[in-house]
Amino acid sequence: MNTSKKILIVEDDPNISKLVEYNLQKSGFKTTSVDSGEKAIAMLQKDKFHLAILDIMLPGMDGLEICKKIKNNKKLSDMKILILTAKGEEVDKVLGFELGVDDYVVKPFSPRELVLRVKAILRRNETVKDLILCDGIKIDVKNHDVFVDNKKTELTAMEFKLLVTLVENKGNVQTRDYLLEEVWSSSSDITTRTIDTHIKRLRQKIGKYGKKIETVRSLGYRYID
């Protein structure tokens, strides 16, 4: 998944807003935060976002009203919406889903769960490419085959997933934490050192293109655009 996707956070509690921003940015997303419905609508008119995280209880225009305005606007209606709120009553959830909300997270929440839900929402309508071409590398996603300058290269399952993740997000830094989650599903017995080892082997296997997998100090890796 392309983690350079942009997310708008509409939350009037600065502590929660910072928590959400920090965890989404750590997973590679680009975020913008505002503290009111009016500011949210103004921001949506200026910039394009893939998903909005809306609190219901906001000063002035509440989250459900923002949702209505988004879904009634032809230019914005395809944008995904996640409701984040302390109100957990069934009636609020039903109303939210009727308005077109994609998911609903009740406070207090787990930041990790929130990030996973965001990724799940954004994946739903993504089409998986059967063939990825990058420099002299050809990745046959369907058959799990990789060709480097037209020569088949044997990769392990983890090396294959690493390569696909880096190439699909070419030019964008993929943090070690994100790679743990995306490639290894945050298995408890996997450490960041394991990622470094797999990156080293992957670089060797893709030959001269291994130099294009750049180490970003203290953060992670990126395939240079």
Describe this structure in words.
- This protein has helices spanning about 15-25, 35-45, 65-70, 90-100, 110-125, 155-170, 175-185, 190-205; strands at about 5-10, 30-35, 50-55, 80-85, 105, 130-135, 135-140, 145-150, 150-155, 175, 215, 220-225.
- It is an alpha/beta fold and about 220 residues long.
- The strands form three sheets. Strands 2-1-3-4-5 form a five-stranded parallel beta sheet, sandwiched between helices. A four-stranded antiparallel beta sheet has the order 6-7-8-9, covered by helices on one side.
- The protein is elongated.
- The relative contact order is 0.12.
Record field, number of beta strands? 12
What is the overall shape?
Answer: elongated
Tell me the fraction of residues in β-strands, as a range: 15-25%
Structural class: alpha/beta
Biggest β-sheet: strands ordered side by side in the sheet: 2-1-3-4-5
C-alpha Rg (nearest Å):
20 Å
Number of helices: 8
Report the major sheet.
Answer: 5 strands, parallel
The average pLDDT score comes to 86
State the helicity in percent bands.
25-40%
Question: Uncertain segments of ≥5 residues (pLDDT<50)?
Answer: none
Order of helices and strands: EHEHEHEHEHEEEEHEHHEE
